């Protein structure tokens, strides 16, 4: 006796959250059944393995049929075939677009192309996430990217509107799209200590302040690309380190203000010029795409690592950066105050977030 | 020209890409009715076209309005080649033809294609202007309302119930050899869909005409079926019950009638202690197949069984003449009718007087081509023959009517089994005539038939019984006689007194049959049928006893014929009727009493059976009160003591017979174990596992003993097909396979729906088919409904209070109780029938067990209870022996949360006639839909499971869309009448045909009703809105 056909169709589509998770995690039906057995469900319910197998198959089939709709979530809301309560629809979508931290760290900033897709095998091996799940996550990134790529308006809003994600998840996707578009390097060894959250935080600040959208909300691609004019203008900041008087003045202003307040004052004093040069040079190089990509590498190399090697506590870093940005306003010979604030305001936020072990 | 049909095509959405080059579609729409076709403009390059067409107007006869469906075809315009069809929508405009139902059909309809399934949606508005028809000789029957519901619809009152209407139409089947001719399948399948749609329209019109002739205005319990006879054609037939219905308009009258069953149940007195004795019989086949008519019209009438339980005729002195009078009246009312049949399964109070038992008839026919479709005489004659037989069976039971009547067929190649079954009954003439009954009769009637047991009393003459039966005095009223077991096809009457809960009982059976042709085949089948019926009956009886119950409701026996086997599947809901005697146990008797080990084995089995019965009694809370046999006024003194020692077969059978004859009660059902087969049968009896804790199941509308439904419902369809290994199939192996299939299916359902616990599967409907030699297909449709354990307490409290009232007013009852408590239950009784019957009936009342035991008298107990209740302390006591799920005491507070469907557009579907926690405020018309789906890329669509899963989901979606377009929010009495699945995996092809029906309704939550009632008229005026928003 073999089962040829075995289906269950409810007027309200049954969604089992646990099975959905297993499906999203890319387990085969067999593996999913084994995992469910291990969870002790048979003992709890008195069911047999055959029942579990049939149930799992059924859910997998349902998810498979729903997947097409999940690719365009508004369709899931408007379709007539599966009657699913709104709260469940939201759950389906949210979970489908959720991603693994380990995975996103691997592809963050990479081009979402076929080439990268081929590397998914390696990523799967490295992270222990099933290839199937890697593919889904990668395809999600790519799909969202394609849809919002050339759209007007706020990136987060666009993601939210077209994929009906929660605010949090939409923000994460905005960061992923932003990183993919600007191809920021995140995979270098020295960046490994950073989490996706760190990068997403920086992305949000950069989107808010450094993109076209920050000055004009009526342009295409406004949140995707960095404001080219702004990057060009950043060259003007060079004077802060090129002009020796200005640099000395800046240093003395900072040192005066921080004397006695900083635990690592002497180290700061000794390193001021290096640090300032590092931060300003990062700004001036941003006209080159290559240097834009290396932004995080540079920040870590030029600022985070020197401070860390001198064991600056975070509070000192904060005091220093605040004073460092603010003191520029007292430099009479410097005319690009607004530009400086637009640059340093964001950079300060990023650096503070990046500064940890 | 009595009608004008107006159609407007508004827009489309989610259309498929038809032009690969542009990834877009140039869509336009053809609107066809009868022979007239209109077209919209082409809306170029869009997947969401906005046609916003003018009103297309069709001027048509109302006859056509009834017959024809509105056909809407969406096409892709192609300049160079033929236009490609995207898909179609068929809209049955019948609901627009009667005044009270829908006024407009408006909404998004899925565009359906037989190959691709649903491809986007189209927004359509349909209206009908009807002119008054003055032609007396008209052929139309506009205005006759149709209901699938097998009871009087909730917002109507039955003025007269006229009776049986039937009709059938036949036609050539445009495509019956699906798999072989799959070359141009789409065209032929669409032709089929169209044809069937047309035929059912015609059928409905003809039935309507008959109703008008009878001066009725509605058909209730309308059941339409298709017989796909293959080469010999396509038969569409329907039966129903003609009624004159009155709409309940005044809110006062409306409220009680529309009470959801939960309310009604609350009022039914559950705390009725008495138990009753019954016994069932089945008379062995009387008329055997003669096999003489082996001609083209080959036909074998198959001996039929009458399942019954019986009651007395001449018992009470005053009862006799009254009964005769009643009989006379009913008889005269019914004799005018050719067939006094009723497809109803639930009745207005007082309608059903007595129930005789199940009557059924089967007949094996050889199909031949229908030569003249306009004169389908052969098919008519076949059914007439069967109905005649049913009628005579009913007569034999002293009944003049058959209720819960249904008909079915099973076809395999050219052999067809026609089956009909129903419940023989005596009805109250009040509803059958135009109010000619004198009031005094009615009064007497009510006096004489105490609520809750009257229908159990036997309708036939005790001295002239049609078959041997064991009668006892009714355990409720003590005046009339009742049988020991009662089988019926109807729902449990709402006023019936039931102890404990009910459960689904199934008998499953397979019989191998040699492959044969034509007459030989038919003869072989008809020879097998009586044996199958007998075995099915035996199985049912055994399982019923094993559950400790004494009556079956909703019995449905399906016999399916295949190439090389016959399958029998009987489903029913077992209950313990308080009016019938306590069923005896099951006794096993061996053939060889001398063999020690064998004897030991037997006694082991016996013990297992006894344990099972005891367990079931606990599980279903069957704790009938112990009634002393020496009750004053009981005319039959019955010594209760009866040894239950294991006896060898010879003596046991004698003794039992003797006992049965003398007392007709407490008879043990003796199972003889004379060969291994019998042994296996006993084993298989014990393999049926009860549903997991928190689950109940039944195949009737409502579950006896549960009356506090919450609003969560989940209707589902589950299909399984198994392939039998063809090696050496034996009857036994086959039985086991089939049994496992059904059991596993049930287990899967329980598992899948576990999140709804505590819940009950209601209206569980199994259908078996044998699509190919080694394939068995089982289709189950049912609804899971959650209920609230906590509320049960309160209703129980109400019951107790009620019973207190009763006790104080009703002398007779007062007399009975003390006696019963004083007489100690007998220690030798194997299944201590719970001393605390009160406790059982009001299962969770707050009296500690210890206290209860100390209660020396009934009166004290009552006082104590009354106090407890007054103090309001509703504590649960869980006695040790009570391990039933209801007694576990861990009440998960499932507060009747306002269900999550507050968003627009949710359409509920249920096979029941009501929606728990809600009131049906309007019936919008019947939904009767037929779809065919085919594929030539089976593997790509996920194999057979993927294909069928998607198709069923699509069918649900289309039903919901139509209901929403009518302005409704639910389908009640939903049924999937056919699900014919065929596959050809080698060719990567499959095909499926589904027929569903139900009643589209508008319901309002009881909690919202006060608010809604003021807005109701407004809401109903705008069904268009509801329809339009269905998808949001």
UniProtKB/TrEMBL annotation, chain A:
InterPro entries: FIBP. This is Acidic fibroblast growth factor intracellular-binding protein isoform X2. It comes from Equus przewalskii.
From TrEMBL, chain B:
Residues 1-109 form the C2 domain. CDD domains: C2_KIAA0528-like. SMART domains: C2. Residues 630-660 are annotated as: Disordered. It holds the Pfam family YbjQ_2. Gene3D superfamilies: C2 domain. This is C2 domain-containing protein 5 isoform X38. The gene is C2CD5.
């Amino acid at each position: 006796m073999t089962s040829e056909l075995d289906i269950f169709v409810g007027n309200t589509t049954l969604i089992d959250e646990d099975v959905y998770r297993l499906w999203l995690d890319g387990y085969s039906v067999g593996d999913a059944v084994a995992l469910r057995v291990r969870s002790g469900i048979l003992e709890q319910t008195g069911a047999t393995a055959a029942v579990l197998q049939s149930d799992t198959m059924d859910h997998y089939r349902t998810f498979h049929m729903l997947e097409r709709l999940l690719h365009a979530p508004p369709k899931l809301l408007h379709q007539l075939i599966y009657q699913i309560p709104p709260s469940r629809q939201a759950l389906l979508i949210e979970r489908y677009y959720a991603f693994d931290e380990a995975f996103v760290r691997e592809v963050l900033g990479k081009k979402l192309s076929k080439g990268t897709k081929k590397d998914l095998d390696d990523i799967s091996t490295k992270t222990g996430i099933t290839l199937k799940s890697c593919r889904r996550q990668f395809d999600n990134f790519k799909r969202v990217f394609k849809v919002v790529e050339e759209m007007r308006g706020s990136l987060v809003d666009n993601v939210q509107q077209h994929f009906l994600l929660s605010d949090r998840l939409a923000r994460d996707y905005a960061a992923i799209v932003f990183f993919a578009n600007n191809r920021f390097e995140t995979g270098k060894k020295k960046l490994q200590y950073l989490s996706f959250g760190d990068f997403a935080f920086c992305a949000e600040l950069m989107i808010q302040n450094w993109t076209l959208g920050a000055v004009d909300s009526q342009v295409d691609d406004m949140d995707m690309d960095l404001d080219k004019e702004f990057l060009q203008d950043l060259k003007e900041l060079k004077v802060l380190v090129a002009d020796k008087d200005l640099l000395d003045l800046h240093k003395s202003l900072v040192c005066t203000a921080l004397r006695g307040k900083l635990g690592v004052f002497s180290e700061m004093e000794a390193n001021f010029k290096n640090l300032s040069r590092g931060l300003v040079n990062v700004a001036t190089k941003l006209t080159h795409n290559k240097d834009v990509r290396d932004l995080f590498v540079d920040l870590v190399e030029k600022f985070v690592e020197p401070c860390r090697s001198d064991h600056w506590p975070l509070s000192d870093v904060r005091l220093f950066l605040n004073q460092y940005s603010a003191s520029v306003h007292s430099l009479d010979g410097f005319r690009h105050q607004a530009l400086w604030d637009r640059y340093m305001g964001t950079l300060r936020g990023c650096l503070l977030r990046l500064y940890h072990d | 020209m009595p009608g004008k049909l107006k159609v407007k095509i508004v827009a489309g959405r989610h259309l498929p890409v038809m032009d690969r080059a542009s990834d877009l579609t140039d869509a336009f729409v053809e609107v066809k009715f009868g022979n007239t076709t209109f077209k919209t403009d082409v809306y170029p390059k869009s997947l969401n076209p906005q046609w916003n067409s003018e009103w297309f107007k069709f001027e048509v006869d109302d006859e056509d309005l009834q017959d024809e469906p509105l056909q809407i075809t969406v096409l892709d315009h192609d300049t160079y080649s033929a236009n490609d069809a995207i898909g179609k929508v068929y809209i049955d405009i019948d609901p627009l033809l009667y005044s009270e139902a829908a006024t407009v059909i408006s909404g998004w309809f899925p565009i359906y294609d037989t190959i691709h399934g649903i491809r986007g949606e189209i927004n359509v508005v349909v209206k009908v202007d009807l002119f008054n028809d003055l032609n007396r000789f008209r052929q139309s029957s506009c205005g006759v309302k149709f209901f699938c519901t097998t009871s009087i619809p909730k917002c109507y009152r039955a003025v007269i119930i006229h009776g049986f209407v039937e009709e059938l139409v036949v036609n050539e089947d445009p495509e019956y050899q699906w798999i072989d001719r799959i070359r141009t399948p789409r065209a032929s399948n669409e032709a089929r869909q169209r044809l069937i749609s047309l035929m059912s329209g015609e059928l409905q019109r003809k039935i309507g005409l008959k109703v008008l002739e009878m001066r009725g205005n509605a058909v209730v319990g309308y059941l339409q079926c298709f017989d796909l006879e293959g080469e010999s054609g396509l038969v569409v037939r329907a039966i129903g019950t003609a009624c004159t219905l009155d709409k309940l308009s005044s809110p006062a009258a409306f409220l009680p009638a529309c009470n959801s069953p939960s309310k009604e149940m609350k009022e039914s007195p559950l705390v009725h202690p008495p138990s009753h004795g019954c016994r069932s019989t089945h008379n062995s086949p009387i008329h055997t197949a003669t096999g003489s008519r082996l001609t083209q019209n080959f036909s074998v009438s198959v001996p039929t069984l009458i399942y019954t339980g019986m009651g007395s005729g001449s018992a009470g002195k005053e009862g006799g003449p009254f009964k005769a009078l009643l009989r006379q009246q009913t008889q005269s009312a019914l004799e005018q009718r050719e067939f006094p049949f009723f497809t109803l399964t639930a009745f207005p109070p007082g309608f059903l007087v007595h129930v005789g038992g199940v009557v059924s008839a089967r007949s094996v026919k050889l199909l031949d081509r229908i030569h003249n479709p306009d004169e389908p005489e052969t098919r008519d004659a076949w059914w007439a023959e069967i109905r005649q037989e049913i009628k005579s069976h009913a007569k034999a039971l002293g009944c003049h009517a058959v209720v819960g009547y249904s008909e079915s067929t099973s076809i395999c190649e050219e052999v067809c089994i026609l089956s009909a079954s129903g419940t023989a009954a005596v009805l109250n003439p009040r509803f059958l005539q135009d109010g000619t009954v004198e009031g005094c009769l009615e009064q007497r009637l009510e006096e004489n038939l105490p609520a809750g047991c009257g229908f159990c009393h036997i309708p036939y003459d005790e001295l002239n019984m049609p078959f041997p039966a064991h009668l006892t005095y009714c355990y409720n009223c003590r005046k009339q006689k009742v049988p020991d077991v009662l089988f019926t096809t109807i729902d449990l009457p709402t006023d019936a007194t039931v102890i404990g809960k009910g459960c689904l009982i199934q008998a499953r059976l397979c019989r191998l049959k040699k492959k044969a042709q034509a007459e030989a085949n038919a003869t072989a089948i008809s020879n097998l049928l009586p044996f199958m019926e007998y075995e099915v009956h035996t199985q049912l009886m055994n399982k019923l006893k094993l559950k400790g119950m004494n009556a079956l409701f909703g019995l449905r026996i399906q016999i399916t014929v295949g190439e090389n086997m016959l399958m029998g599947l009987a489903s029913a809901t077992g209950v313990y009727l308080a009016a019938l005697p306590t069923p005896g146990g099951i006794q096993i008797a061996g053939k060889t009493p001398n063999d020690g080990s064998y004897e030991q084995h037997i006694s082991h089995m016996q013990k297992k059976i006894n344990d099972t019965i005891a367990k079931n009694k606990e599980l279903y809370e069957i704790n009938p009160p112990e009634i002393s046999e020496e009750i004053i006024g009981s005319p039959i003194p019955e010594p209760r003591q009866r040894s239950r020692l294991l006896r060898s077969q010879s003596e046991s059978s004698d003794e039992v017979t003797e006992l049965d004859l003398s007392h007709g009660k407490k008879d043990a059902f003796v199972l003889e174990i004379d060969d291994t087969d019998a042994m296996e049968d006993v084993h298989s009896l014990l393999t049926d596992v009860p549903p997991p804790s928190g689950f109940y199941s039944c195949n009737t509308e409502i579950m006896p003993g549960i009356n506090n439904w919450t609003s969560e419902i989940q209707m589902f369809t589950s299909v399984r097909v198994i392939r039998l290994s063809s090696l050496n199939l034996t009857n036994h192996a086959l039985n086991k396979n089939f049994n496992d299939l059904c059991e596993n299916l049930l287990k899967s359902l329980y598992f899948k729906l576990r999140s709804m616990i505590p819940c009950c599967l209601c209206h569980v409907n199994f259908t078996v088919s044998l699509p190919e030699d080694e394939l068995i297909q089982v289709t189950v449709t049912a609804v899971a409904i959650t209920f609230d354990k906590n509320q049960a307490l309160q209703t129980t409290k109400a019951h107790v209070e009620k019973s207190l009232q009763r006790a104080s007013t009703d002398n007779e009852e007062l007399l009975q109780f003390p006696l019963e408590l004083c007489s100690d239950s007998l220690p030798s009784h194997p299944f201590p029938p719970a001393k605390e019957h009160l406790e059982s009936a009001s299962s969770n009342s707050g009296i500690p067990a210890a206290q209860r035991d100390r209660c020396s008298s009934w009166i004290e107990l009552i006082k104590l209870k009354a106090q407890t209740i007054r103090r309001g302390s509703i504590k649960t006591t869980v006695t040790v022996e009570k391990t039933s799920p209801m007694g576990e005491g861990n009440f998960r507070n499932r507060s009747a949360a306002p269900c999550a469907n507050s968003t627009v557009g949710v359409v509920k579907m249920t096979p029941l006639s009501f929606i728990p926690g809600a009131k049906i405020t309007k019936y919008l018309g019947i939904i009767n839909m037929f779809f065919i789906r085919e594929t030539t890329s089976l593997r790509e669509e996920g194999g057979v499971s993927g294909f069928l899963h998607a198709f069923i989901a699509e069918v649900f979606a289309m039903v919901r869309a139509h209901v929403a377009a009518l302005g409704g929010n639910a389908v009640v009495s939903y049924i999937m009448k056919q699900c014919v699945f065929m596959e050809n995996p080698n060719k990567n092809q499959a095909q499926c045909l589904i027929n569903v029906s139900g009643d589209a309704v508008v319901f309002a939550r009881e909690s919202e009703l006060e608010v809604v009632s003021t807005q109701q008229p407004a809401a109903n005026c705008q069904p268009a809105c509801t329809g339009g928003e269905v998808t949001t």
